[in-house]
Amino acid sequence: MAKIKEKVIAPEYIPDKGSHVLTIDKQKYLIVNDAMYTFYQRSKGEFSPFFLGIRDDKKILGCKCVKCGLVRCPPFLTHCPDCDFAPTKIVEVGQVGKMLSTPPITYFANSLFLKMAPYGRGRVVLQGADTALSVNVYTTTGILAPGIIKKGTEVKVVFRDERNGEISDIFCVPTKELTRAQVAKKGLLSSQINWEGAVEPALKKPSAADKAAYAKAFKEIKSIIKLMNQTERARKDIAGWKRDIKVKTTGGEFAIVINNGDIRVEEKKLTKPDFVVVAKDPKVLADGLAYRGAITDSVIMKRLWISKNMEFTTIFKLDRMARSVARSRK
Ligand SMILES: [Zn+2]
Question: What is the pTM of this model?
Answer without folding.
Answer: 0.75
